[in-house]
Amino acid sequence: MGDFQKIETQEQLDALINEKIKQEREVIGKKYEGYISPENYNKQIGDLNKELKEAKEKIAGHDKTIAEKDAKIKAYESRSLKSRIAHEIGLSYDAIDFISGDDEASIKKSAESLKALVGSSQTQVPPLADTEDNAGNDKDAALRNTLKNLNKGD
Fold first, then answer.
1. With bands split at pLDDT 50, 70 and 90, how would you rate the model's confidence at 133?
2. Cα 43 to the center of its chain, rounded Å
3. Is residue 122 a contact partner of residue 94, using CB atoms and an 8 Å limit?
4. Reported confidence tier of residue 126, pLDDT bands at 50, 70, 90
5. CA-to-CA distance for 89 and 5, rounded, in angstroms?
6. At what angle do helices 104-118 and 38-89 cross, to 10 degrees?
7. What pLDDT, in 10s, does the model give residues 57-106?
């Protein structure tokens, strides 16, 4: 132990206490040298929360874009499936708008129901020649008969 000095004034006591506080602060400062101060810690938390919020907003935007694209893809796939089934059953391309359903079985059932309601209008072949009788026009009828006779003469 060192020499003991008698403290006689308040200034000596204050100087001794300040010296002890300074030494203790140095020891504590070395002990916690790698740590962040509370002010910096709170600032860092605020910055990280801000980055987290921005990242969440960005992810929400991407999720919305993905959902929109998934909906488009599903619509295209459904339209393609309806088109294929309508073609297999014998419906026209315009009939696809009237077919409903989400899966292949329900779409096929809807297409068959529509086919039963509409009938087979697509398989009917229009007539190739005019079958109406033009009895009122004798000149045209005479020319037709002459043409038929000429063709028969071959």
1. low
2. 37
3. no
4. low
5. 113
6. 40
7. 999 999 999 999 999 999 999 999 999 998 898 888 888 888 988 888 99
Distance between CA atoms of 113 and 104, rounded to whole angstroms? 14
Give the pLDDT of residue 70.
96
Q: What's the distance, Cα to Cα, between the start and end of the chain in Å?
A: 147
Both tokens of residue 117?
Answer: 């309601």
Residue 30 φ then ψ, to 5°: -70, -40
The encoded tokens of residue 151 equal 């063709």
- The pair of three-digit structure tokens given for residue 2, joined into one six-digit string: 């060192």
Backbone angles phi, psi at 6, to 5 degrees: -80, 130
Q: Rounded mean pLDDT of 116-134?
A: 63
Tokens of 22: 């300074």
Using alpha carbons, select from 18, 6, 127, 118 the residue that is nearest to residue 110.
118
For residues 100-135, b (16+ Cβ closer than 10 Å) or e, as one string?
Answer: ebeeeeebbebbeebbeeeeeeeeeeeeeeeeeeee
